[in-house]
Structure formats: structure tokens, C-alpha cells
Amino acid sequence: MTVQKQQRTSAPRAVRADTERTIRAILEAAERVLTADPAATMEDVARAAGVARTTVHRRFATREALLHALTDWAARQFADAVGAARPDSAPPLVALYQITANVLRVKTNWSFAMNRPAADHPEAARIHAEVRATCIRLLRRAQDAHVLRADADLDWTRRVYYALIHEAAAETATGSDPDALAARVVDTLLRGAGTAGTPTAM
Predict the structure, then answer these.
(1) Of 23, 28, 38, 113, which is the most exposed, with the fewest CB atoms less than 10 Å away?
(2) Domains of the chain
(3) How many helices and strands in the chain, by DSSP H and E?
(4) Rounded to whole angstroms, how far apart are CA atoms 77 and 110?
(5) Sign of CA dihedral 100, 106, 108, 112
(6) What is the pLDDT of residues 141-188, one digit of tens each?
(7) Is the pTM of this model over 0.90?
């Protein structure tokens, strides 16, 4: 390959990388600004991102387009956090703990976007549906490994797990350690708060 051809090949890559960095900076700034003030303007976001307002409008034509992109971006961070824990190959208990810790970090860093209704955003909804399916597969593996009871309702277990993560995420917002909270979530999911055995009648 000639030097001239190498230059032509590398130039578009550099432009794409620069564009991606700009978009990420805008989205990260939007998350910070909107968390502090949900009514913040595009100009507020541009100022926080350190770019011109025209740059934000060039990437996102409207405020709603920016919110849409932010919601999709957070959903992808959520899916990546789950995938990084190797839910289909790591030992189920290890994967469950690591997913919990990873997701708590995402929910802390992207709290505004993660709290937006995914149902209003087709791409985010698709990603969340894939994560739910992954969660069910992991819980089924945990059941097969006797980490969960054989008669456990896996969809109900998933919903309880999600609720525990939601509550733990509120704690991470106050500075609590995500790893310690992940251990608490998994312990509560698997062991509950009661004593072993069948409850007696009152």
C-alpha cells in the first residue's frame, strides 16, 4: 500500500474517531446536566460538553433527538455491563455477582437516562429485552447448578432481582460501594431475610 493510499485510509478513521469522541462528550455532558436539571437546554449541554451549541445541533437536530440518543446509549452501556460478566459461560454465582456490580455502576453513572421509559425508544426496548432474556438464561443456569431452587419461578425471580438492583442503585447514589451492595443484593436474592424452614402460623 502506498503512503498516499494509507493517508486516505487513515483520514476517515481519524474523522470517525473524532466524531465518536464528540458524541460521547455530548452524551456524558447531557447525563450530568439533565440529572441536575431535567429541564436543561441544548445550550446548557453544549456548555457542559465544552463544545459550541452548533456542534450539538449538528449531531442532534432537536432536544428530543438528544434524549433519544442518550437513552439508547445508556441501554448499550447496560447491555455491555451484563455481557462483560460472561453470563452464559462464567459460573452462575460469579456471573450473578459481577453483573450486579457492573449494572450498579452503570445505573449510577447513567441514572437519568436509565430511568427514562425504554418502551418509548425501540432500540433501547430491544436491548432491554435481550438483557431480560440473558438474565433468564443465567437464572436457569443457576437453577441447574442448584444455586436456585428447582421450583423457583424464574420470571418472578428476575423481577425481584431487578427490584433489588433498583433499591441498591439508590444507595450507590449516596456513595455506597457497588461491590458491597452487589454482595448484599445477591445474598438477599438467594437467602432472603428470614430464617430457614417453613414459616409457622401466627
Answers:
(1) 38
(2) 1-61 (1.10.10), 70-192 (1.10.357.10)
(3) 9, 0
(4) 9
(5) negative
(6) 999 999 999 999 999 999 999 999 999 998 877 778 899 999 999 999
(7) no
> Cα separation of 20 and 49, whole Å?
13
The mean pLDDT of the chain is 89
Cα–Cα distance, 78 to 121 (Å, whole number)? 15
The shares of helix, strand and coil residues in the chain, as percent rounded to the nearest 5, are 75, 0, 25
Euclidean distance between CA atoms 69 and 1, whole angstroms = 38
Judged by DSSP in three states, 84 sits in coil
Asked if 101 and 130 touch (Cβ cutoff 8 Å), the reply is: no
DSSP 3-55: HHHHHHHHHHHHHHHHHHHHHHHHHHHHHHHHHH-TT--HHHHHHHHTS-HHH
Rounded to an integer, what distance in angstroms lies between the CA atom of residue 165 and that of residue 188?
Answer: 11
Contacts for 75 with CB less than 8 Å, ≥ 6 apart = 118, 121, 123, 124, 127, 128
Q: Is 15 exposed, middle or buried (0-12, 13-18, 19+ CB in 10 A)?
A: exposed
